[in-house]
Design a protein that fits this description.
Order of helices and strands: EHHEEHEHH
Distance between the termini: 37 Å
Number of domains: 1
GO molecular function, one term: transposase activity
InterPro entries: RAYT_transposase, Transposase_17, Transposase_17_sf
CATH superfamily: Transposase IS200-like
CATH architecture: 2-Layer Sandwich
GO biological process, one term: DNA transposition
Helix content: 25-40%
Strand order of the largest sheet: 2-3-1-4
Shape: globular
Radius of gyration: 18 Å
Protein name: Transposase
Strand content: 5-15%
Number of helices: 5
Length: about 200
């Protein structure tokens, strides 16, 4: 098994890509309220600064600045992912029925520990086959690198063809930054709406 080594904690912000196991799922957007609450509770327990965040149907991108006294981002992501998974299971389970009652539009839910183990299905580390086991992170080297990754977050919905302008995607912290006057005119073009970044 590969030995994944993460760099030593740094005061520079960190860019993340976090994905669902099922590519093409729309669970993150369909259940954005559950994700927001998972992030809100994690922020309450283990604060950090959200510099950018965009949620797409099956993955999300974020840039965080962590406190020097508590730079452990792996534990924070673990809490967000496990809270989302738990609350999603509660929402999708039909009252009084067993695990076979999970809707077919999110079939990986039914393949978790409640349905019995099957070869090749991952149920360890509290992720229960909803999330990819690991996430990708990049420690920003300097302010220019940070700005590039923030812009990458904002532009990702355009890259995937969901919208034609970054500000047209509602589940993005760009709306918070438009409201605060941090975004150049070419990145905006629409009035800010309530979005994922509003909790920050």
């Amino acid at each position: 098994m590969p030995n994944y080594r993460r760099p030593s904690p740094s005061t520079m912000p960190v860019f993340f890509t976090v994905c669902l196991v099922q590519q093409g799922s729309t669970a993150l957007i369909d259940h954005l309220d559950i994700l927001r609450e998972a992030v809100r509770l994690t922020l309450r327990d283990r604060p950090f600064d959200i510099l950018a965040w965009v949620v797409l149907p099956d993955h999300m991108l974020a840039v965080w600045r962590l406190p020097e006294s508590d730079p452990n981002y792996s534990q924070r992501w673990g809490r967000i992912k496990s809270r989302f998974t738990r609350d999603l299971r509660v929402r999708l389970r039909r009252p009084g029925l067993g695990p076979e009652s999970f809707p077919t539009e999110f079939p990986e839910i039914s393949k978790g520990r409640f349905a019995g183990l099957k070869p090749g299905l991952r149920t360890d580390k509290r992720e229960q086959a909803v999330w990819q086991r690991r996430f990708w992170e990049h420690h920003c080297r300097d302010d220019r690198d940070l700005e590039a990754h923030i812009r990458y977050c904002w532009g990702n919905p355009v890259k995937h063809g969901f919208v034609t302008r970054p500000a047209d995607w509602p589940a993005s912290s760009i709306h918070r930054d438009i409201r605060l006057g941090r975004v150049e005119p070419e990145w905006s073009g629409v009035e800010p709406v309530g979005a994922f970044g509003e909790m920050a």
